[in-house]
Structure formats: C-alpha cells, structure tokens
Amino acid sequence: MKKKSNPMDDYRPLMDVFTCVRPLLAKNDHADFPFSVLGTCFIADFYGRYFVVTATHTYARSHGVMQLTAQYDPQRDEMLPISRRFELIANDESEEELSDITILEIDAEKVDVTLLAEHYPAKISVDDTVTILNPNFNYTFRGYPHELREYSGKQIHTVGVIADAFLIEGGETGSGLHGLEVNNATDFPSFDGFSGSPVFQLSHMDDTVTFPCFSGMLIRGSQSAGIVHFITCKHIVRALQTIVKENDIPPLKLPLPVSK
Q: Alpha helix (H) ranges present in the chain?
C-alpha cells in the first residue's frame, strides 16, 4: 500500500524561502568599483537545472552575458558562473510587461553547489502554473533597494529587506499583471531595486505553521501609492519549460545542497 503523503513533508520555515534571493550584479572594468548592483534576482531550481531569474529592464542592453551575475552567498564574494542569457520577446505591445523576464543559465560544468551553503534555490515546478492567487492570504517579497547599498573596501555591501502585502482584488491590469498593496510601504524610501524580487503567497495553516507558495516576480511599483505589480508564476514556469526543452538542458550532475 502506498504511504499517504504528509503535507508537512514539504513544509519550509517562512524565512527559508528567501534563501533564493540575491542582488543582481554587473561586473565592471573598474578597480575601485568592480561590481554594480542593478536590482534583485533569485535562483531557481527547475527539476535540477539552476537558473538566475530577474526582470529584463533591470539591466542595460549593453551589458554582455558574462557581465551579469549573482553571488553564491549574498555575504560572500564568490560569483555564480553564467553560461547563457535568455530574454523573452513580446509579440506586441500588450505583452511587453509580461515578457519582462530574463533567465540566466548557471553553468552546470563550472558551478560548485557546495558554495551555496544554506542559501539554496527556490524549487519551481509545473505545479506552480496552477497556483490560485487568493486575496484572503498574505503575500511577501524580498529585494535589495538601491538606497541600502554602499561601497567600502572595494566591495558592495547590500541589505535585503522584506515587505508584507495583500493581493488587490480585481487588481489584474490590462497587461496581465497583478497588484499588491504593501502594508509597510513607508518603511522604504522607494521601491527602486525591487524589480526581479520573487513573490510568495503565504497560506497560514494555524498560528505557527505557514506554507509559502511561489507566486511570481515583481517588476514595478510606486512607493507613494504603496502598490507593486508582479508577473505571475505561470509565465515564469512556461519560460523555463520552453528554455529547457528547446535547448535540451540536462539536470546538474553535481550533488545538490541539502535543504533544512
């Protein structure tokens, strides 16, 4: 007889979902400022294939593939090796915002997953395409605001912050984005730098147990209005599916980091 699954088998502490978030960096040819912080990104584990996901508008077209990167660990200097960049292309103007997705392939031959330590990726699967956005649940996202970065000792120091939000009912825009009303919007000077932040829906089982569910990626917001907009997870999953299929990308053969 097949053992009945226990929903707690998939339980992860709330703060663990943010282990995937990183500042998106660009390598510079400057001795004093070797890196620039462009925005936020997150590492996705799509069936054993590792990618860095961000919003396309966070970087300039002049940035080459080898310039864009992210850290293994946000507190360390080691950088993830990037092999290819995939950008979604809109068929027409109505799809421009929904196509604001860039996916960087992490080089499977060069990556050292042990350097991720406890900062492991977000596991994303096709099941995320059927996630129902519930206005009765809380939502949260983590990003790296431009105001909270500084240079010292030729290194970038960044601080990631977390926002708490509620889904705006009927908040889907004409471009297909969904809106969130941010409860603590006044805590931030602006939302600059949050583009590329992963959004999670929080399902509260009781007073102590919360199940975070990947819901999408933030691409724009207004601090004065206290509202941000995000691309839903189904668009990101479909992009990952297409990239993996069309490029025949195999899973990593290296040992994966152990989750808590």
A: 233-247
